[in-house]
Amino acid sequence: AGERPNSVPDPAPGSTRPLGEILLETGVITEDQLTEALHTQRDDPPAILVESTIRVDVGLLDNLMKMVGELVLARNQILQYTQQRPDAGLNASTQRLNLVTSELQEGVMKTRMQPIDAVWNRFPRVVRDLSKQCGKEVRLVMEGRQTELDKTLLEAIKNPLTHLVRNAIDHGFEPPEDRERAGKPREGTLALSAFHEGGQVIIEISDDGAGIDPDRIRDKAVQKGFLRLEDAASRPDRDLMQIIFRPGFSTAKAVSNISGRGVGMDVVRTDIEGIGGSIEVQSTVGAGTTFRVKIPLTLAIIPALIVTSAGDRYAIPQASLLELVRLDCSTALGVEHVHGVPVYRLRGRLLPLVHLRQIFGHPDAVIDEDSAANIVVVQADDEVFGLVVDEITDTVEIVVKPLAQVLKAVGTYAGATIMGDGQVALILDVHGIAVRAGVTEAERVGMSAKGAEEDALAEDDSARCATLVVGVGGRRLALPLESVARLEEFDPVLVERAGRVRVIQYRGQILPLVFLDEELGEPTSREHGEVLQVVVHTDGDRSCGLVVDEIHDIVEQSIQITPHTAEFGVLGAAVIQGRVTDVVDLDTLLDRALPERHLSGVPA
């Protein structure tokens, strides 16, 4: 009907006359228009506006999260209890409880999640003001603003990220005139990006500035007394980058109200590690610098690996876990000692070993050559090392509990949790253990002592290849790792026949089996019921199973094959891990074993 003209009288106070009747009398609308409006009003009654969001006190969410944590603990205890009692009805109810608890846990955690833009929305002004103060031209680019993480973590990373942004503008970017002389645009680009990866939130702060000069860090480190002159000269550039996180270190030429006091980057690392995260730095002189921050999605409930040492149980957060290695009696001989530091050559690279027993004061922390050893390969910042434990138990979701005051100063524990049997297990602080064990220095000593050997063995990365070393009939055989999809164990009673080929039902498909000992003319006598060790080999969308006697290790090194026989299916011999190993010609061998090459389309 359009806007009501000024000539339309306002209804008297308390009047019950409909507005449509008044508009009809004054001639603003016609009778047909009034009838149509009444029909529309009857067909579409006015909807009641309901807010799609409600405000909830943060304290209420914290209490709700605590109760969910207690529910998860109770769930874990019930699961452990029912595993020992074969009651079908109880097991079904327990699995239902497990499913509902997991969904409830996920839902409550989502209520605490907020987009990282809640922190980033302050950076445009910071960049604008600081770049003007420093006389630089900087453009801010932000990606992944809707990436969510726990509200507690958002508050914790606010100051570290602000310092990294300020540091990039002050230290990273050159003045506009210098950028033009270097062939760069006057305006520099500061990029912030956030995304989820492997159960963590990754935040990258990148600039296209001058980069970090390792020679300048080397000189400053010697000047400040952080390094000796001879150590600084031999220290790799990657290790030198970590010195910027040392307290009191700064490359600023003059002290200002922004930088130059050597206080900041050490606090950044401390704050990030305090919430279970890590920070890495990569820099190229003249091209720029990137800081990569990894933080967990939440601190309340995390997946962890449970291990035992000297009769005590410990939890290792899976965010720090890389892989598990088991050394049997034969491979335990490969553990060497360099300047008193135990190291193990894992796929051609030296891995420093830290005995958990030794860290906690047990003197019998040695790898017995007559027994197996379990190694948990973990990463603390850029350093990778192996934790030697007595036993690896299981992976579970644990509820993180704060430490008692007396344990906070130890530095090797990140918290505690209650296990399914009601006992307390301590959560290990991987970075704290690395510092206490001196892993960083141990690795440098080891690499330095092995320098001559490394130079002799150093190969071009393009020439290195990864192989799977297996045992067949007392021989060591090498298979190309790129064609290996999985390693499996099968019960021999599951083996069937399809024509003349032995097969097994595997992941919804028919997987043909090739017994390498028979194909190489050296059949192995297997005991009745002995489990079959199978390497699932893939070639495009086709797969087959290679039956072997043992699976030894994965080795990454360049291989020089020496033809030694005209044996069918063998390319020749190579020295792998210091032992002569035959390299298998899989294509030729499989052409004979499976002439139709009817390899099934088993998913890798």
How would you summarize what this structure contains?
Helix content is 32%, strand content 32%. The strands form six sheets. It has a six-stranded mixed sheet with strand order 10-14-15-13-12-11. It has a six-stranded mixed sheet with strand order 21-25-26-24-23-22.
Structural overview:
The protein is an alpha+beta fold and 604 residues long. It is 32% helix and 32% strand. The relative contact order is 0.07.
Report the radius of gyration as a whole number of Å.
33 Å
Mean pLDDT: 78
Range of strand content: 25-35%
The main β sheet shows up as: 6 strands, mixed
- Class computed from helices, strands and strand pairing: alpha+beta
* Poorly predicted segments: 1-5, 441-463, 598-604
Q: Based on DSSP secondary structure assignment, what is the total number of beta strands?
A: 29
| Strand order, sheet with most strands | 10-14-15-13-12-11
How would you name the oligomeric state of the polypeptide chains in this document?
single chain
Helical amount: 25-40%
Helical region count?
19
Shape: globular
Spatial gap, N to C terminus:
67 Å
Question: In terms of topology, how is this protein built?
Answer:
Blueprint: H1 19-25, H2 31-43, H3 58-83, H4 88-111, E1 113-115, H5 117-120, H6 123-134, E2 138-143, E3 148-150, H7 151-172, H8 176-181, E4 188-197, E5 200-207, H9 214-224, H10 229-234, H11 237-241, H12 265-274, E6 278-284, E7 288-296, E8 301-309, E9 312-317, E10 321-327, E11 335-338, E12 341-346, E13 349-355, H13 356-359, E14 373-380, E15 383-389, E16 391-399, H14 405-408, E17 413-418, E18 424-428, H15 430-437, H16 439-449, H17 451-457, E19 465-472, E20 475-480, E21 484-490, E22 496-498, E23 501-506, E24 509-515, H18 516-519, E25 532-539, E26 542-548, E27 550-557, E28 570-576, E29 579-584, H19 586-593
Parallel strand pairs: 2-4, 9-18, 13-15, 20-29, 24-26
Antiparallel strand pairs: 1-3, 4-5, 5-7, 6-7, 8-9, 8-16, 10-14, 11-12, 12-13, 14-15, 17-18, 19-20, 19-27, 21-25, 22-23, 23-24, 25-26, 28-29
